[in-house]
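Entry type: protein chain
Record version: 2
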Amino acid sequence: MRDDGQLEHDIAQLLDDPQYAGHPLREALGALLQRYDDQLTQLERLTSISDGYQSVLRARNESLTERYRKQIRQLQKIVRISDHYQKMLQETNEALKVASSQDPLTGLPNRRLMMERLKSEAALVARNKSPFSLALLDIDHFKRINDEYGHDIGDAALTSTARALCAGVRAYDFCARWGGEEFMVLLPETSGESAMEISSRVCMSVSTLQHSSLPADKRISVSIGVAEHAPGSEIAETIKQADLALYKAKHAGRNRVMLAT
Protein backbone atom coordinates (compact mmCIF):
# COMPACT_ATOMS: atom_id res chain seq x y z
CA MET A 1 0.00 0.00 0.00
CA ARG A 2 1.46 3.32 -1.11
CA ASP A 3 1.71 6.17 1.33
CA ASP A 4 0.07 9.55 0.79
CA GLY A 5 3.26 11.17 -0.47
CA GLN A 6 3.81 8.56 -3.16
CA LEU A 7 0.16 8.72 -4.26
CA GLU A 8 0.34 12.50 -4.58
CA HIS A 9 3.52 12.17 -6.61
CA ASP A 10 1.90 9.63 -8.99
CA ILE A 11 -1.19 11.78 -9.50
CA ALA A 12 0.97 14.83 -10.25
CA GLN A 13 2.86 12.83 -12.88
CA LEU A 14 -0.40 11.72 -14.52
CA LEU A 15 -1.62 15.29 -14.68
CA ASP A 16 1.65 16.40 -16.24
CA ASP A 17 1.61 13.60 -18.85
CA PRO A 18 0.58 15.13 -22.26
CA GLN A 19 -1.21 11.96 -23.32
CA TYR A 20 -3.92 12.67 -20.74
CA ALA A 21 -4.34 16.31 -21.70
CA GLY A 22 -7.85 15.82 -23.03
CA HIS A 23 -8.94 13.17 -20.58
CA PRO A 24 -12.33 14.02 -19.07
CA LEU A 25 -11.16 13.18 -15.52
CA ARG A 26 -8.00 15.25 -15.72
CA GLU A 27 -9.62 18.50 -14.57
CA ALA A 28 -11.53 16.85 -11.74
CA LEU A 29 -8.42 15.00 -10.60
CA GLY A 30 -6.42 18.25 -10.66
CA ALA A 31 -9.08 20.01 -8.58
CA LEU A 32 -9.11 17.12 -6.14
CA LEU A 33 -5.32 17.24 -5.84
CA GLN A 34 -5.44 21.01 -5.26
CA ARG A 35 -8.07 20.59 -2.54
CA TYR A 36 -5.91 17.91 -0.97
CA ASP A 37 -2.92 20.26 -0.99
CA ASP A 38 -5.02 23.08 0.50
CA GLN A 39 -6.35 20.83 3.26
CA LEU A 40 -2.86 19.54 3.94
CA THR A 41 -1.58 23.12 4.20
CA GLN A 42 -4.43 24.03 6.56
CA LEU A 43 -3.77 20.92 8.61
CA GLU A 44 -0.10 21.83 8.87
CA ARG A 45 -1.04 25.34 9.94
CA LEU A 46 -3.48 24.02 12.52
CA THR A 47 -0.86 21.58 13.75
CA SER A 48 1.66 24.40 14.01
CA ILE A 49 -0.87 26.57 15.89
CA SER A 50 -1.76 23.66 18.15
CA ASP A 51 1.91 22.96 18.83
CA GLY A 52 2.46 26.62 19.61
CA TYR A 53 -0.55 26.71 21.90
CA GLN A 54 0.57 23.53 23.64
CA SER A 55 4.03 25.01 24.05
CA VAL A 56 2.61 28.23 25.51
CA LEU A 57 0.23 26.25 27.73
CA ARG A 58 3.05 24.01 28.90
CA ALA A 59 5.24 27.02 29.62
CA ARG A 60 2.34 28.68 31.42
CA ASN A 61 1.68 25.56 33.46
CA GLU A 62 5.36 25.30 34.30
CA SER A 63 5.32 28.97 35.31
CA LEU A 64 2.22 28.46 37.46
CA THR A 65 3.76 25.36 39.02
CA GLU A 66 6.96 27.21 39.80
CA ARG A 67 5.00 30.12 41.23
CA TYR A 68 2.96 27.70 43.31
CA ARG A 69 6.10 25.97 44.56
CA LYS A 70 7.66 29.35 45.33
CA GLN A 71 4.57 30.38 47.30
CA ILE A 72 4.65 27.07 49.16
CA ARG A 73 8.31 27.68 50.05
CA GLN A 74 7.46 31.19 51.20
CA LEU A 75 4.55 29.90 53.29
CA GLN A 76 6.79 27.24 54.82
CA LYS A 77 9.33 29.91 55.66
CA ILE A 78 6.59 32.08 57.21
CA VAL A 79 5.37 29.09 59.24
CA ARG A 80 8.92 28.43 60.48
CA ILE A 81 9.33 32.10 61.40
CA SER A 82 5.92 32.08 63.07
CA ASP A 83 6.77 28.93 65.05
CA HIS A 84 10.09 30.45 66.08
CA TYR A 85 8.36 33.68 67.05
CA GLN A 86 5.71 31.79 69.04
CA LYS A 87 8.44 29.85 70.83
CA MET A 88 10.33 33.06 71.61
CA LEU A 89 7.09 34.69 72.78
CA GLN A 90 6.32 31.71 75.01
CA GLU A 91 9.84 31.73 76.44
CA THR A 92 9.61 35.49 76.98
CA ASN A 93 6.27 35.11 78.75
CA GLU A 94 7.70 32.38 80.93
CA ALA A 95 10.73 34.52 81.70
CA LEU A 96 8.50 37.49 82.53
CA LYS A 97 6.33 35.28 84.71
CA VAL A 98 9.38 34.04 86.57
CA ALA A 99 10.83 37.55 86.81
CA SER A 100 7.58 38.88 88.23
CA SER A 101 7.35 36.19 90.89
CA GLN A 102 10.94 35.17 91.68
CA ASP A 103 13.76 36.91 93.47
CA PRO A 104 16.68 36.95 90.99
CA LEU A 105 19.41 36.70 93.65
CA THR A 106 18.21 33.86 95.88
CA GLY A 107 15.84 32.14 93.46
CA LEU A 108 13.10 32.22 96.10
CA PRO A 109 9.58 33.49 95.38
CA ASN A 110 9.34 37.23 95.87
CA ARG A 111 7.07 39.37 98.04
CA ARG A 112 4.34 39.61 95.39
CA LEU A 113 4.01 35.84 95.05
CA MET A 114 4.10 35.40 98.82
CA MET A 115 1.19 37.83 99.16
CA GLU A 116 -0.81 35.81 96.66
CA ARG A 117 -0.13 32.63 98.62
CA LEU A 118 -1.05 34.33 101.87
CA LYS A 119 -4.39 35.43 100.45
CA SER A 120 -5.10 31.92 99.15
CA GLU A 121 -4.15 30.39 102.49
CA ALA A 122 -6.30 32.90 104.38
CA ALA A 123 -9.30 32.03 102.19
CA LEU A 124 -8.70 28.32 102.86
CA VAL A 125 -8.41 28.93 106.58
CA ALA A 126 -11.68 30.88 106.56
CA ARG A 127 -13.43 27.78 105.20
CA ASN A 128 -11.63 25.12 107.25
CA LYS A 129 -11.29 27.14 110.47
CA SER A 130 -7.71 25.94 110.91
CA PRO A 131 -4.83 28.34 111.66
CA PHE A 132 -1.56 28.86 109.84
CA SER A 133 1.56 30.67 110.98
CA LEU A 134 4.07 33.12 109.55
CA ALA A 135 7.75 33.36 110.34
CA LEU A 136 9.54 36.61 109.49
CA LEU A 137 13.36 36.34 109.42
CA ASP A 138 15.98 39.05 109.34
CA ILE A 139 19.76 38.56 109.00
CA ASP A 140 21.48 40.05 112.04
CA HIS A 141 23.88 42.95 111.45
CA PHE A 142 23.55 42.60 107.70
CA LYS A 143 24.62 46.20 107.07
CA ARG A 144 27.84 45.50 108.95
CA ILE A 145 28.53 42.53 106.63
CA ASN A 146 28.09 44.75 103.58
CA ASP A 147 30.23 47.52 105.06
CA GLU A 148 33.08 45.26 106.21
CA TYR A 149 33.22 42.71 103.40
CA GLY A 150 31.41 44.30 100.45
CA HIS A 151 28.08 43.77 98.75
CA ASP A 152 29.26 40.63 96.92
CA ILE A 153 29.80 38.94 100.28
CA GLY A 154 26.47 40.32 101.42
CA ASP A 155 24.78 38.74 98.40
CA ALA A 156 26.53 35.44 99.15
CA ALA A 157 25.22 35.64 102.72
CA LEU A 158 21.69 36.13 101.42
CA THR A 159 21.84 33.15 99.06
CA SER A 160 23.37 30.82 101.67
CA THR A 161 20.78 31.91 104.23
CA ALA A 162 18.02 31.21 101.68
CA ARG A 163 19.39 27.69 101.14
CA ALA A 164 19.58 27.03 104.89
CA LEU A 165 16.04 28.34 105.29
CA CYS A 166 14.62 26.05 102.62
CA ALA A 167 16.52 23.08 104.04
CA GLY A 168 15.21 23.72 107.55
CA VAL A 169 11.48 23.91 106.82
CA ARG A 170 9.02 21.25 105.68
CA ALA A 171 8.43 20.36 102.04
CA TYR A 172 4.99 22.02 101.98
CA ASP A 173 6.09 25.24 103.70
CA PHE A 174 6.46 28.26 101.44
CA CYS A 175 9.59 30.43 101.66
CA ALA A 176 10.06 33.83 100.03
CA ARG A 177 12.41 36.76 100.10
CA TRP A 178 10.34 39.47 101.73
CA GLY A 179 12.74 42.30 100.96
CA GLY A 180 16.32 43.37 101.65
CA GLU A 181 17.73 40.94 104.23
CA GLU A 182 14.26 39.74 105.30
CA PHE A 183 12.65 36.39 104.48
CA MET A 184 9.19 35.05 105.20
CA VAL A 185 7.93 31.50 105.66
CA LEU A 186 4.30 30.46 105.36
CA LEU A 187 3.61 27.38 107.52
CA PRO A 188 0.21 25.93 106.56
CA GLU A 189 -2.00 24.27 109.20
CA THR A 190 0.58 25.09 111.86
CA SER A 191 0.03 26.60 115.27
CA GLY A 192 2.30 29.27 116.67
CA GLU A 193 3.98 26.82 119.05
CA SER A 194 4.76 24.36 116.23
CA ALA A 195 6.01 27.23 114.07
CA MET A 196 8.34 28.20 116.93
CA GLU A 197 9.92 24.75 116.90
CA ILE A 198 10.48 24.83 113.13
CA SER A 199 11.83 28.38 113.27
CA SER A 200 14.23 27.44 116.07
CA ARG A 201 15.70 24.71 113.86
CA VAL A 202 16.12 27.23 111.05
CA CYS A 203 17.76 29.71 113.41
CA MET A 204 20.26 27.10 114.58
CA SER A 205 20.89 25.87 111.03
CA VAL A 206 21.80 29.38 109.84
CA SER A 207 24.03 30.12 112.84
CA THR A 208 26.09 26.94 112.34
CA LEU A 209 26.47 27.44 108.60
CA GLN A 210 30.05 28.03 107.47
CA HIS A 211 30.30 30.69 104.76
CA SER A 212 33.32 30.18 102.52
CA SER A 213 33.40 33.88 101.67
CA LEU A 214 33.68 34.92 105.32
CA PRO A 215 36.47 34.43 107.89
CA ALA A 216 36.33 31.06 109.68
CA ASP A 217 35.30 32.68 112.96
CA LYS A 218 32.58 34.76 111.35
CA ARG A 219 29.05 33.41 111.59
CA ILE A 220 25.75 34.69 110.26
CA SER A 221 22.67 34.56 112.43
CA VAL A 222 19.02 35.43 112.02
CA SER A 223 16.32 36.76 114.26
CA ILE A 224 12.82 35.39 113.72
CA GLY A 225 9.38 36.61 114.62
CA VAL A 226 6.48 34.13 114.53
CA ALA A 227 2.77 34.90 114.44
CA GLU A 228 -0.23 32.60 114.22
CA HIS A 229 -3.00 33.65 111.84
CA ALA A 230 -6.39 32.97 113.35
CA PRO A 231 -9.48 32.44 111.16
CA GLY A 232 -11.17 35.74 110.42
CA SER A 233 -8.05 37.82 111.00
CA GLU A 234 -6.58 40.14 108.40
CA ILE A 235 -3.35 39.11 106.68
CA ALA A 236 -1.88 42.57 107.27
CA GLU A 237 -2.48 42.22 110.99
CA THR A 238 -0.74 38.83 111.13
CA ILE A 239 2.26 40.23 109.25
CA LYS A 240 2.36 43.17 111.66
CA GLN A 241 2.35 40.78 114.63
CA ALA A 242 5.22 38.75 113.13
CA ASP A 243 7.16 41.96 112.51
CA LEU A 244 6.66 43.06 116.14
CA ALA A 245 7.86 39.65 117.34
CA LEU A 246 10.92 39.99 115.11
CA TYR A 247 11.60 43.42 116.61
CA LYS A 248 11.46 41.88 120.10
CA ALA A 249 13.87 39.11 119.04
CA LYS A 250 16.32 41.76 117.80
CA HIS A 251 16.18 43.70 121.05
CA ALA A 252 16.42 40.53 123.14
CA GLY A 253 19.90 39.84 121.73
CA ARG A 254 19.33 38.54 118.21
CA ASN A 255 19.91 34.96 116.94
CA ARG A 256 16.64 33.85 118.50
CA VAL A 257 12.92 33.28 117.84
CA MET A 258 10.04 35.16 119.46
CA LEU A 259 6.32 34.36 119.26
CA ALA A 260 3.80 37.14 118.93
CA THR A 261 1.45 37.38 121.88
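Comment: The CA atoms of residues 76 and 82 lie 10 Å apart.
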